[in-house]
Design goal:
- By secondary structure, this protein is mostly helical.
- It has one domain: Orthogonal Bundle (434 Repressor (Amino-terminal Domain)), CATH 1.10.260.
- Helix content is 64%, strand content 0%.
- The chain starts with 7 loop residues before the first helix and ends with a helix.
Length: 91
């Protein structure tokens, strides 16, 4: 069994930092990003600080950055943990 060393909050914050870096690289302010995504400024600012945001709002941010394929490709490749899962997937 694999041990998970990161918490969900750690992963969310890591994603927020990546998005923040992209935003800054493109010279977009937090207020501009919030406006473009139709997300409140407070929510967007909180997202970059904590990683917490509604999933639909995250999709809006990702779409604005032209990275929607990152979301669309989630969970498209099966990861099997046992031969039983492989067999059940064939049914």
């Amino acid at each position: 069994m694999d041990f998970i060393l990161e918490t969900p909050s750690d992963i969310a914050l890591k994603i927020a930092r990546r998005i923040k870096n992209i935003r800054k690289r493109r010279k977009i302010t937090q207020k501009q990003m919030a406006t473009r995504c139709n997300v409140s400024y407070a929510s967007y600012r909180k997202f970059e600080e904590t990683g917490m945001i509604a999933f639909v709002s995250l999709i809006k941010v990702v779409m604005e950055l032209g990275l929607i394929n990152e979301i669309n490709d989630l969970f498209t490749q099966p990861v099997y943990l046992s031969i039983e899962e492989v067999i059940n997937d064939r049914k």
